[in-house]
Amino acid sequence: MPISTLLFSFDKTTMSFCVFFSRFTVFVMNLAQLLVGLAVIALTLWIRFDKSFESEIRQNILQENDAEPLSADKYDIRVGIIVAFWVIIGFAIANVLIGLVGIIGAVLKNRFLLAPYFICEVLLFLLEAAIGIAMLFKRKTVRRIVKKYVYDSYNMNSVSDIQAFNNRYNCCGADNLPNVSCFAGQPTCSSAVWDRLDFTMMIFGISMLGVVVLQIIVSLFTVPIILEGKRETSYYSRRVSADS
């Protein structure tokens, strides 16, 4: 057997293995992406509609009959929560749909599914990266709103808000507002509330980074499948042309 034939056979076998491995990887990662998306949707809906979750703080923030400026503080927080809710839900739904298309495309090895999937995946992780960067730029604004809410609650002696802070965060007082009833070394509620929220946003950011990395990897593994499908299509087209 000629050496060129052996080399061609070896290259074809290697390429077939690479494509199979890529298909398997794309299938598994898209399945994970789909399941994570469904889990995020379920978790977000649970937090949004379960009234027992952070019930005291939830009731206080939803209260609309406070005097100014406390009412404006709560309005800003409500708007921020609604925006965050729909952004998270939107990205989760997109991950589910794109993951489903990726699974089907990997199983069928259909480049007409995988090519649009690849484009959507790239656009999705670019949007997620943009949201992450926007969160970094908005961090100071969120911090200011949260601390202002705590400060105004204490300054206006809003009993329900103060009790919720004390019970939930084991804190006392607000920044730049003296309170003789606070123990030495006890954190202010301004710091306690913000630190908890900041930690939550950090965890969310790390999770988003992990998802983006996963999407980049799965996008790279999609390329060999698309190229192999294109190569096979070209090969069969040439065979048909030669036979005719």
Automatic annotation (TrEMBL):
Keywords: Disulfide bond, Membrane, Transmembrane, Transmembrane helix. Disulfide bonds join 172-189. The chain crosses the membrane at residues 20-47, 79-108, 114-137, 203-227. It is found in: Membrane. Pfam families: Tetraspanin. Its main location: membrane. The keyword Transmembrane applies. GO terms for cellular component: plasma membrane. InterPro entries: Tetraspanin/Peripherin, Tetraspanin_animals. It is a multi-pass membrane protein. The keyword Membrane applies. Belongs to the tetraspanin (TM4SF) family. This is Tetraspanin. It comes from Caenorhabditis angaria.
